[in-house]
Amino acid sequence: MNVQMNDHRHHPDIRTIKKRFFAALPFYVAVPVLLALIFIWGSGYGIEWSGFGLGALGWLVALMLRGPVAALSMKLPKSKAQTIIVASSGVLEESVRLVLLWLATASMPWALSAGQGWAAIEVVYAIVSGFATLSLMSRTDEKAKQAQALLAAQGTGNVHPLWGAVERLSASLFHIGATLLLAHHPLLLIVMIPVHSLFNLSAVWLMKRSVVWTEIFIAVIGILVFTAGWLLK
């Protein structure tokens, strides 16, 4: 059964949303921990913390670079601005990822750790965003009410946070695979930029229609990119 994002018939109250969020938190935390253990046991590569830390830093740099893109898009219609911001993710993230690997003259074990750090900081960001959303939904001032109305219009209130944990796992595989691919050959940047942007744009389009199909899509692409990176490592 598909869970439609635009189905507004049922909206859980704030207490239910909080309960679901806190119940899902261990699953978010488990994603980077589980992946690290799998790679340590399966490949024999321990975590290189310099790579892990710089991978996390790289993601933060790419996130900050979206600020100017968002600022330049403010005068455009909302739908076009969102498309530009989402599409820019491929250019910004993959370019920063390549620069990071180039500066570090990365070995494959180092690149694997960098990919894990990149993916792990996204999990942290998702958790922090979750807490921020809960805080917003608990407020009663006018700005908070406007933001709450926007969230309701997006139809995300009835989506269980566990779907977000599933998405973090799939996205983590994508980022680790992309890091391994660029470490294998820098010219793969030409491929990864459009792949990453189309990946994000397609996920946003699907999210308006079905959570289930969105997560299936993200999982398939994440596994394919990771498998390609792992085979070429």
Give a structural overview.
With 233 residues, this protein is mainly α. Helix content is 81%, strand content 0%. The chain has helices at 14-43, 49-72, 78-104, 108-138, 142-154, 162-184, 189-207, 211-232. The longest helix has 31 residues, at 108-138. It is globular. 32% of the residues are buried.
Key structural traits:
about 230 residues, mainly alpha, 8 helices, globular
List the helices and strands and how they pair.
Layout: H1 14-43, H2 49-72, H3 78-104, H4 108-138, H5 142-154, H6 162-184, H7 189-207, H8 211-232
Average pLDDT value?
86
Helix fraction by DSSP (H/I, runs of at least 4): over 70%
Could you give a short account of the major beta sheet? Answer: none
Query: What is the helix tally?
Result: 8
Low-confidence stretches: 1-9
Secondary structure category: mainly alpha
**Would you count the extended β strands for me?**
0
Radius of gyration: 18 Å
Strand-residue proportion: under 5%
User: From N to C, what is the helix and strand string?
Assistant: HHHHHHHH
- Overall geometry comes to globular
* Span between termini: 38 Å
